[in-house]
Design goal:
alpha/beta; Rossmann fold; four-stranded parallel β-sheet; about 35% helix; globular; binds aspartic acid
Length: about 325
């Protein structure tokens, strides 16, 4: 069951046809999930994929409205949530450019949330501050989905990452998974590392010293019984990994741009590096990439990042249907 993060079940516009652990809940952190929750969502996501491939769309969420509120740039997360809602027959209020909204007039997050929840059945929120989605959830009677809170978490990305590993390699247990790049500011890594603690995996973390996994996340992973192996070089792990998860150095989080310049090009996955990896491993990236993976690697069948990105829509369809009680 999903933990009751925010008190009682929230109001959603539809009467549920199915009660599940997600119905009427906020989705704020991966810490809410148990393994059964993931199995449930991944099962529904597979069904969503089959529906999209067969007929393109359904009217499961006909009449429902999602508010997509993005205070930070986004291509994949915002458009895949919008596509997911529309393929389920619902509609979307897009506020991707907060500078054209009342936020520029000085409106507070709680007031903006109160407004959107009056019109929509759930709100997807991306915000530069850690914990913003928790604050939003406190004010909203409708479910809030965290689509990235600064350097905090990105729970729906971690769900689609894990779904991709399972689809590509047929299992998660028993794998060696390495995350490389900006482990300090990369919220997708913070969520994925935590979520992987539900599985029997070996994790390696590859970064320069100034971009190491934050102590808080490292301590949580260790407390959940997973050894944290840290190294500076992808070469140290390339021959043994089943999943190499590469991330962008998060330029927007640096106050000192010379520090950013000193680490921005540290890791570059080339065809040469890939030639040393296992024949059945996969290469993942939450995207956007800005030089970490060379374009000629795209032709390698182990390059899974575009399939990973597509999976985001199926997983988000599953999540929307589950939160609105229609999965
Ligand atoms: N798209 C991901 C995020 O929003 C990764 C990134 O921006 O590098 O966190």
């Amino acid at each position: 069951m999903v933990t009751k993060v925010n008190g009682s079940t929230k109001r959603v516009g539809l009467s549920p046809t199915m009660h599940n652990g997600f119905y009427g809940r906020d989705i704020l952190s991966v810490k809410q999930f148990a393994r059964e929750d993931l199995d449930y969502i991944f099962g529904v996501a597979e069904e969503m994929e089959a529906i999209v491939r067969r007929v393109g769309a359904t009217d499961l969420l006909k009449g429902s409205i999602l508010a997509n509120l993005f205070y930070e740039p986004s291509t994949r997360t915002s458009s895949s949530f919008a596509a997911a809602m529309q393929r389920l027959g619902g509609s979307v209020i897009p506020i991707n450019e907060v500078r054209y909204s009342s936020v520029t007039k000085g409106e507070s997050l709680p007031d903006t949330i109160r407004t959107l929840e009056a019109y929509a059945d759930l709100v997807v929120l991306r915000h530069p501050e850690v914990g913003a989605s928790q604050i939003a959830a406190r004010y909203s009677r409708k479910p809030i989905i965290n689509a990235g809170d600064g350097v905090g978490e990105h729970p729906t990305q971690a769900l689609l990452d894990l779904f991709t590993i399972q689809q590509e390699l047929g299992r998660v247990d028993g794998l060696h998974i390495a995350m490389a790049g900006d482990l300090k500011y990369g919220r997708t890594v913070h969520s994925l590392a935590r979520l992987l603690c539900l599985y029997d995996v070996e994790m390696s973390f590859v970064s320069p010293d100034i971009l190491r996994l934050p102590e808080e996340v490292r301590d949580e992973v260790i407390a959940l019984g997973k050894p944290v192996r840290e190294t500076h070089a992808i070469e140290d792990i390339i021959e043994t990994v089943d999943v190499l998860y590469v991330t962008r150095v998060q330029k927007e989080r640096f106050s000192d741009l010379t520090q950013y310049e000193s680490v921005r090009n540290l890791y570059e996955v080339t065809t040469d590096l890939m030639s040393r990896a296992k024949p059945k491993m996969i290469l993942m990236h939450p995207l956007p990439r800005v030089g970490e993976i060379h374009y000629d690697v795209d032709a390698d069948p182990r390059a899974a990042y575009f399939r990973q990105m597509e999976n985001g829509m199926y997983v988000r369809m599953a999540l929307l249907a589950a939160v609105l009680g229609k999965a």
